[in-house]
Amino acid sequence: MNVLFVGQHAKILNEENGIAHRHSLTFENASIHDNSMAVLRLDALQKIFLDAYEIPTLKLAIQSMLQEALPNEGCIVFGDPSELCVNATLRALMDASALIGCVFIYPVGMSALDMRKELSSLILELKRKEIPTYLARNPVAFFETFEPNLEALVYGLENREIPNVDVEYLCGKGAHKIHSR
């Protein structure tokens, strides 16, 4: 099983807290200053150039990237659901039946307000597919519980129990058992 940090918010959180993880998926905008294209990057090794920052385009790129890098393995995803990259990753993994669970990092800024329709659609899809889904309102405190690695969290998601009070259950089959540490 793989732990996948997706998007800029998850990347910043990881850099600030030094969270031990195996994979990071980020989107980098195109730059008119150096004439570069937009890039979807998995860790530091793989990258795909993209024409547009839209869910269908991202989803196709993510499907091919993850199929090559993480074949036949389930994933637990961490990310801000207001980022299109996170939304597309979750949809790609659900289509491949490879999403074991997800923890939403509390959305930052006003972009979350602009994405209410897309977020509700995503949460309904996660609920319909019975994917254990949680919300970490205070991500720094949430991840401090699992230092120096995320094995306890991975075990908790596999067994439908999260040993932490800094997380809220959103949806998913039998995933609402949350224990304080």
Spatial shape: globular
Q: Provide the number of structural domains.
A: 1
The succession of helices and strands, N to C, reads: EHEEEHEHEHHEHHEEE
Q: How far apart are the first and last residues' alpha carbons, in Å?
A: 24 Å
Major beta sheet, strand line-up = 4-3-2-1-5-6-7-9
Structural class: alpha/beta
The helicity comes to 25-40%
Biggest beta-sheet profile: 8 strands, mixed
As a percent range, the share of strand residues is 15-25%
Number of E strands: 10
Q: Which residues sit in consecutive blocks of at least 5 with pLDDT less than 50?
A: 175-181
Give the number of helices. Answer: 7
Explain this structure.
The protein is of the alpha/beta class. The chain has one domain. The strands form 2 sheets. Strands 4-3-2-1-5-6-7-9 form an 8-stranded mixed beta sheet, sandwiched between helices. Strand 1, helix 1 and strand 2 form a beta-alpha-beta unit. The radius of gyration is 16 Å and the shape is globular. The two termini are 24 Å apart.
